[in-house]
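Dear colleagues,

As part of the handover before I leave the project, I'm documenting each prediction I ran so the next person doesn't have to rerun anything. This entry is a single chain, and its sequence is reproduced below.
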Amino acid sequence: MATTDNWIKLYRWWQEHLKSHFHLSSSNMNENHQKKRNSLLHRRSSLMLFRSSNNALLMNAKKRASFGGVEEHQEMSYAIGNGGFRYVRDSIRNKNSRTTRSTVTVTNNKRSVN
C-alpha cells in the first residue's frame, strides 16, 4: 500500500510541476513546426509555377537535339501527349490502335455427352 501511495504522490507532483512545462514546450514546438511547414509549402507552391504540367514536353525539350530538329520534336510531343508510347509504336508499325481494332471471336467447344 505504501508503494501505491508513493506513486500517487509522485504523479501529483509531476502534474503540478512538470506537466505545465511540457505542455508549454510542446505547444511551442507545434507552433515552430507549423511555421516551418507553411514556409515549405509556400516555397513548394512557388516552385510549382516553373514546373511544366506536361512531362512529355519537358522530356522532349531536353532531348530536342537528338530528334534532329524542332519539327520532329513537335511531332513526337504531340504523339506522346495524345496516347503515350503505344500510339507512337503502333503508328510506326502502321497499326494505329485508335482506328483499327481487331476483334477475336472465341467459340466455346462443348463436349457432347452420350
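The two ends are 88 Å apart (CA to CA). Residues 23 and 34 are 16 Å apart (CA to CA).

All the best with the project,
I.
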